[in-house]
Design goal:
10 helices; disordered C terminus; 3-stranded mixed beta sheet; single chain; alpha/beta; L-arginine/glycine Amidinotransferase, Chain A
Amino acid sequence: MIYFSSLLYTTPAYAPEARRLFDALDTQGVEYRLLDGTKDIWLRDFMPVRVKSGKYISFRYEPGYLADAPALRTDFRRDLAPRLAPENLVYSDINLDGGNVVFSPSREVAVISDRVFSENPAFPEKALVRELERLLGAQVVIIPSIASDMTGHADGMVRFLDEKTALGNGTPYQNGLEQRIARVLKEHGIDTLEFPYFAPPKNSAVGCYLNYLETERAVFLPVFGATADESTVAKATALFAKPVVPIRLNEVAKKGGCLNCISWESKTIRRQSVRKSLPTD
């Protein structure tokens, strides 16, 4: 089951894109629900992280980029857990956004950007990695982030195609960030294929095709009305063995995230706390 914030549909700027997305999900037979009570649309970041064992880890959600915007910070434990906590839930005081955790298909490897270190200055780095590996039940691979990126999330830089192959952005940042990420992954036995990308405006995710939503039935690919859209859809179609469905997503992307950022998956959430029906126009 895929979940989204109900704000995605009730916010006028996002509503047309939400309808396109939900129509596409319906067409592909992908079930979804809307969650009430969130303070923003970025479910991936403040909802618990599912690990291989079936447990869910709820990390502290106090990102530095929201330090001056507390009204936009959803506290899962306080705001949502009383109504919809999944089974097998574990809380952690580590400050970590879910969008900064990218699992391999088996969930035995987790890629996290080094932004996690600056978000947890009281933790020695090696001790922090050891604790993350214990909680996630996975080998943690730390990749570099770009300082100018607001969130520094790994899900805008790396996605797994299979256990030994990752996709990375193809257009170089300054200082060869993609090459440095590829070297780190290679050290852990993971090859990197380039995926289309173009540099977005500041604090925007327009151009980040890599932030797609992958389900069992299809890959939902963000597109932006750009000249690179067509070739990106063709590239994704050649890479994935399941249908690739493009979703125009400019307004959401302008706020700093795309399809992976706004979605969350769970099999154990209490269903009575969510709704499927959409508001009427």
